[in-house]
């Protein structure tokens, strides 16, 4: 999706972890807006998108001087106690523009100077593997969670045509795992997938998180319903996948291939450590 870019100078970067992210002391969004513009993105229903009055996916604010802001905040917050960071809750920290702007990379560099107790990186972008050198230096204090909602490219294109292809995400996961960066595959929101999906992930990760709209959109599925996401399932003739019990089928498929203590559901799969 073609996005417009704007430079912003935020005063703060760390937000208090609340609600679904209450296991974290803070969330951190290096950008505002998101070029991937996923159809089901619940951020479309949040004030950051509603008050902007521009279509979600068509704009991105680039946070300038973010490293200096974070450096000060990290120092202050760490002096008060434990700091665990979820990056990111309302954007993808590896936006396509991150290739050029390197905001997220600059934040990782600051975290190496003064590491948080834990950093969780949620992304669907293979670009995260560019930063393997920095991620390795955070050792066990980081986990990269790669969104892989389905193993089917036709389904991915139907729901998120502007997001990176699934094979490229799998390759990035392989690079991260080979390098020794702690990783997980996050099937969220779970989309229609094949029976072979678990086998495709088995050699790549030893941690799976499964989540859906009903558990994970922060409103029991209301935000997603308001987006009219059911029409996407009707077009596919796959309405059985848009149901609170659909995750059980995926859970069963994965626990046939992965040990049960490696397969997490909803909030537990996003928890620190
Ligand atoms: S990548 Fe994440 S933040 Fe961006 S549009 Fe998709 S779901 Fe929303």
From TrEMBL:
The protein, known as: DNA repair photolyase
Keyword presence, Metal-binding: yes
Listed Pfam families: Radical_SAM
Keyword line: Iron, Iron-sulfur, Lyase, Metal-binding
Presence of the UniProt keyword Iron-sulfur in the record: yes
One GO molecular-function entry: lyase activity
SUPFAM superfamilies per the UniProt record, alphabetical: Radical SAM enzymes (SSF102114)
CDD domains for the chain: Radical_SAM
Domain Radical SAM core: 20-252
